[in-house]
């Protein structure tokens, strides 16, 4: 969804069983510590985490090849359902007092005619399932993207872990 925010949250439930047999329940929100927010953002942007969308090895083909097993990054989906990996690199990481942001860029060069409908950003593509083991984000383009021989497609994904 446009404008989705990744905001860690939680709740605490408490049950008190009194000596007289009465049971009381309390519930409230808990405060998610900044340490875990930082770790979540760092794990997604890291080169060696179990959920990173840019984990090493990252996709490294820019010539409309099927996604490589075990690699991470961006793949795009043709209108016929065929998936193609994009050379995927982390281009920036920004951290300020309210959010952690990182940018992943994917590049493909067409040598024929293709019509692209959507893209997926994720961790560890599985050729047996035909999907990432962890999907970070998906996007359906507002209209199909037509490419012809010589065109280059660049997809830039910006992920922000909000502080609140």
Topology:
Layout: E1 11-17, E2 23-29, H1 34-45, E3 73-78, E4 83-85, E5 87-95, E6 99-109, E7 114-126, E8 131-147, E9 152-162
Antiparallel strand pairs: 1-2, 3-4, 3-7, 5-6, 6-9, 7-8
Short description:
This protein is mainly beta and 164 residues long.
Descriptive tags:
164 residues, 3-stranded antiparallel sheet, 7% helix
For the largest sheet, list the strands in their spatial order. Answer: 4-3-7-8
Number of helices: 1
Please, how many domains? Answer: 1
Distance between the termini: 18 Å
The percent of residues in helical segments reads under 10%
Mean pLDDT: 80
By DSSP, the count of extended strands is 9
Radius of gyration: 20 Å
Q: Largest sheet, described in full?
A: 4 strands, antiparallel
Overview of the molecule:
- This protein is mainly beta.
- The chain has one domain.
- It contains 1 helix and 9 strands, in the order ββαβββββββ.
- The protein has one helix at 34-45, and strands at 11-17, 23-29, 73-78, 83-85, 87-95, 99-109, 114-126, 131-147, 152-162.
- The strands form 3 sheets. It has a 4-stranded antiparallel beta sheet, with no helix packed on it. A 3-stranded antiparallel beta sheet has the order 5-6-9, with helices on one face. It has a two-stranded antiparallel sheet with strand order 1-2.
- Strand 7 (114-126) and strand 8 form a beta hairpin.
- The chain is elongated.
- The model has no long low-confidence stretch (mean pLDDT 80).
